[in-house]
Specification:
By secondary structure, the protein is of the alpha/beta class. The protein has 12 helices and 15 strands. The radius of gyration is 23 Å and the shape is globular.
Length: about 375
């Protein structure tokens, strides 16, 4: 337990002296010295420079030997796969984006090939081989059904619905593979380092090319019987077609319910209806924010749509906090957030706090890295 506590402190704080480590763990100096010697012999820590600016001789600093293991994190979307490779300290050392034109054939082996190519590209950028990897976590739309192993709720990802997709990828990459819902990963990242750090009961609403939610209760993700908890894009709402009435599920904005009202394609169509033309939803909302009249109408209608869907979730889950994330929420910013808050008045009896995501960069990759690193550290840091 002392070894693991020391390793976790070195991850959290960076290089520490023996004295600092002893103070943080409550261990005596001789015990801290023995611990560091043991971890250094195991290759888990290494000396790195000295602490200066303190009375007396400069003290030796120790840090995690981050190069002892690496992990891969991937984000899958209809346009391609982004892979990053990070060392055990969480420093990203390689990244690669692979456009998925070849995924359109829907072949199961092609899915594995695309993922492997993305990971290998990130490894090449890091100057590493595949044998350096200890864990791989993949964030995708939809979720693995725990009963069948098949990826559900993601019909727009051809080739990913195989019941053996995780086993196929594990065999292809040579590492344990976790396939996790992308919005769940965003919520884990938000809980770890974002705006939900101090909350164990919250809902993250993702409004992007698709619409979804992650529900965290008592600090744990709610997954549901088929892994579909939080698939609020299919939730029936006034003004949107039902899922059974949709003509096709091939497009991210297809399907029925909330997704047809609040996804990026829906926002773009809403803006165009008010005479605002733009290349994508973020650009349309940026224009709406500076366009009196038409822009105000776009924002008001979007806030009403978001609030209506969020109110249904609040009524069932009663969270302490609702976090808005995804490109629609980020582009609308604080003004959209304020309008949604106003619209929620009277729609839902519980009144949770409403906040925007506080994460920089790709929140899906951040969450996937967090999960991969936690798993890898559990294995590598096991000195028992």
């Amino acid at each position: 337990m002392n070894d693991r506590a020391a390793l976790d402190l070195l991850v959290a704080h960076g290089p520490l002296t023996r004295t600092q480590l002893g103070e943080l763990t409550g261990l005596s100096k001789p015990t801290a010295s023995q611990l560091l010697s043991r971890l250094a012999a195991a290759g888990l820590v290494r000396a790195t420079g000295t602490a200066t600016g303190r009375p007396g001789p400069n003290a030796q600093l120790y840090e995690i030997n981050a190069s002892i293991a690496h992990v891969a994190a991937l984000s899958v979307d209809p346009l391609g796969v982004t892979a990053v490779v990070a060392d055990l300290a969480g420093t990203v050392v390689g990244e690669h984006r692979l456009l998925a034109d070849a995924m359109a054939d829907g072949a199961r082996d092609r899915t594995s090939t695309v993922v492997v190519e993305a990971v290998d590209g990130a490894l090449r950028a890091a100057g590493l081989g595949r044998d350096a990897l200890h864990r791989t976590v993949i964030g995708t739309p939809g979720a693995l059904d725990p009963r069948t192993g098949a990826l559900r709720y993601a019909p727009h990802l051809p080739g990913w619905q195989s019941r053996t997709v995780r086993e196929d990828l594990t065999a292809a990459l040579g590492t344990p593979v976790v396939i996790e819902n992308d919005v769940n990963l965003v919520a884990l990242a938000e809980h770890d380092r974002g705006t939900a750090q101090d909350f164990d009961n919250f809902v993250l609403v993702w409004a992007d090319e698709g619409v979804g939610a992650a529900i965290v209760l008592d600090g744990a993700l709610l997954r549901g019987a088929t892994g579909g908890a939080g698939e609020i894009g299919y939730m029936p709402l006034p003004g949107a077609p039902l899922a059974r009435e949709a003509e096709t599920f091939a497009r991210p904005d297809a399907g029925g319910g909330f997704q047809r009202l609040a996804s990026s394609p829906a926002v773009l169509a809403l803006a165009e209806a008010y005479g605002i033309s733009a290349r994508d939803a973020p650009a349309a909302l940026a224009e709406a924010l500076v366009t009196p009249g038409a822009g105000d109408a776009v924002l008001a209608e979007l806030a009403h749509r978001l609030a209506t869907g969020i109110a249904s979730v609040i009524a069932v889950v009663d969270p302490e906090l609702v976090v808005l994330s995804g490109e629609v929420a980020q582009a609308g910013g604080e003004r959209l957030l304020s309008l949604v808050q106003e619209e929620l008045t009277g729609l839902a009896l519980p009144r949770p706090q409403l906040r925007l995501s506080a994460l920089d960069g790709s929140p899906i990759l951040i969450g996937a890295l967090r999960t991969a690193l936690a798993d890898a550290r559990d294995t590598v840091f096991d000195t028992g």
